[in-house]
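As a warm-up, study this chain.
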Amino acid sequence: MIDLLLRHENKKQQIRLRRLVYALYGAFIHTVVCVLLWVSDLFRISGYEFIMTFLFAWVVNGLFFMLIYSGMNERLKDPSLTIPMMLWSITFIMYTVFLTTEVRELLLMFNFFTLVFGTFHLGVRAFIVLACYGIFLYLCVIQTLKIVYPSLVDPHIEWIAFFGFSLVSLAYV
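Now compare it with the structure written out below.
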């Protein structure tokens, strides 16, 4: 079934679709992990909010698929959509990091999976900007949690995690 969807008369589009499907595998794994965390009561949102959050995420993912499958992406300056997809992925991952109660570091690992997709398609400058974007969003998550949910933040552990995440992100670049 998936192989049928990935067949495209345009070979470049076929490659883009395959890359997107690999990214969607990662998004699926992220979703499964988040479901397990939610069932374990490690998310601060209700079941309805959880479902709506992930439904929205998968609608956006579906839009990326439809853009490429329909060929509409070829009218854009970057038809691979690498940067928009990575920005979306990093943003959504950091949103789920914000929503968790105790296991933020587990979900941070998915950010590195996202960075893999830029390895061969982005220049160094764009790659650095995307890594810094993830670092900035994680800093925003920590700061917002300190204000809104101070009992969920152990500053010592959170800053060690932030420092480690930042170093690994920049080293990956």
